[in-house]
Amino acid sequence: MKVFEAIADAVVAHGVDTVFGLLGDANMFLVADLVNRHGVRFVAARNENAAVMMADGYARVTGRCGVATVTQGPGLAVAGAALTIARQARTPLVLIAGDTPPGDPLHVQHFEQQPYVLATAGTFVPVTGAGTAARDVGLAFRAARELPGPVVLNVPIDLQEEPVPAGPILPVPAVPRPPLPLVPDPAAVEALAQRLRTARRPVLLAGRGAEPAAAAIKDLADRCDALLATTLMSAGLFAGHPYDLGVAGGLSRPLTRRMLAGADLVVTFGAHLNRWTADHGTLFPDAVLVSVDVDPAAIGRRWPVAGGVLGDAGETARALSALLPALSRPQWRSRELAAELAGADPFEGLDIRSTVDLIDPRAFIRICADRLPRERTTVVGVGHFGGWPNLLLDSAATDRSFVAPWEFGSIGVGLPFAVGAAVGRPDRPVVAFEGDGSLLTGLGELDTLARVGAPVLLLVLDDAAYGAEVRKLAPRGVDPQLARFPGRDLAAVARALGLPAWTVTDEAGARAAFDAVLPLTGPALLHVKVHPDVVQEKF
Fold first, then answer.
1. Are 41 and 100 contained in the same domain?
2. In this protein, which residues make up the domain named Thiamine pyrophosphate enzyme N-terminal TPP-binding (predicted)?
3. Are 247 and 239 a contacting pair, CB within 8 Å?
């Protein structure tokens, strides 16, 4: 057995049945062995960065460790942004990267891969010898799950061809069971309970880290008459609760803003507070902020807080409930507020500005709200366009059905994350929102989507510009033409790459396109030409 075969065996032994990647000299025989001998599904991307994003999207919707592979040198270098996104999102992911021979520093594709990996993924596991290959694979998978986060398993190309020495192969076992929930310090819980006793207008704000504790947080809110809210990443977590304010942040709706402005205590659970969650300090200006998190480094790292509790969200919420009497705040949790929340219409009062050949993006999202399947995975890419679906379209974070890979602010994420999500959860359709500028950074992945054939509806909101830059340049007196581009027929491009596609310029055309494409049974693209002067103030 050669080393690349031993690596393939070890990867499959860790339960891997799907790998994303792009072939090159330093990984092609490994991939061929995974496919031909083990029956692993290989999803071939057109760009290494996109391949890692696909593995990230796969991991986010399945809860499994994503796996990708790239070749040496430029193959790894191109994937840097995707690795950084996964690191900031703490996505469990193993990237198997080839490397040039250590004894050939003049190789055309040589560069120092370890420091690059440490600056992007953060964790580097080298395969150091033929006899340790299976163990090193185990170390990589264990690190990805325990951190969690992305790990690069680095395999020099010459080592892959060496024979594995005879003898027992002892791979590193996976962790037999997840770690026990982190129990908070009783004194810290009592201090927070006292804040909740004396607060007049408390809000409990949950982030992605608190999703398993949603029931415990709702029970705590009911016990102390607090309102509920979520970060964007956990949108919809408390859907159906009569006092759910929805998303807190720059994309808060008007009623949510009004209530958060009056809060005097905001307790966050598993939410990494940052400038967007707090909307640069304008969202809850008079509130004392207290953060509950299992990561001590996350408490107060990106936004100042008055206090912190180190502990599991569910354990902390239940401990607080046990210490608190049933509190009544009828002026805060009123019947009038519940009725107002129940009847709130995000589209009410919009000044729709569609023209003959350009649709107002808000009008298009209103049609999406009416026509898109309720059971779906929603993916929202990064850019000015992303504000519209995030602000106006209800999404559910439950069952890992909402993906917003905004962690690093990188454009070009919508399509590859949608492909990964669709491969991971083929039982439900994926609806992905992307911008024209963002799509054009990775146009080749339309071919990947066509080959995969998964039910992904890609909605491209095209303002013929980098909309965020236009929005920022013009008020400073700088010509926004620097960020504008000629209109392109993206539907024709999609069709040329094998995708059914429609162009939408008005509301009637949007409804007709949805009539043609729904129910979704395979990939499709709607090229939506939106009015470029409709500006999203917060995004």
1. yes
2. 1-106
3. no
Cα 288 to Cα 264: distance, rounded to the nearest angstrom: 6
Q: Report the C-alpha gap between 205 and 269 in whole angstroms.
A: 6
Question: What gap in Å lies between CA 508 and CA 526, rounded to an integer?
Answer: 14
CA distances, 69 to each of 140, 322, 361, 426 (Å) = 13, 49, 38, 22
Q: Identify the domain containing residue 333 by its residue range.
A: 186-343
CA–CA distance, 493 with 478 (Å, rounded to integer): 32
Residues 139 and 172: beta-carbon distance below 8 Å: yes
Q: 194 and 129: one domain?
A: no
Residue 483 included in any domain: yes
Closest Cα to residue 52, out of 14, 98, 16, 21? 21
Q: How far is Cα 351 from Cα 471, in angstroms, rounded to an integer?
A: 19
Count of structural domains within the chain: 3
477: CB partners within 8 A, 6+ apart = none
Alpha helices (H) along 384-435: 387-392, 414-424
Q: What is the pLDDT of residues 120-157, one digit of tens each?
A: 999 999 999 999 999 999 999 999 999 899 999 999 99
Whether 455 and 431 have beta carbons less than 8 Å apart is answered as: no
DSSP string, 278-322: TGGGTSSTT-EEEEEES-GGGTTSSS--SEEEES-HHHHHHHHHH
Q: pLDDT digits over 368-427, tens only?
A: 999 999 899 999 999 999 988 988 888 766 678 899 998 999 999 999 999 999 999 999
How much is the pTM? 0.94
Tokens of 315: 């354990």
Residue position matching structure tokens 């898109």: 372
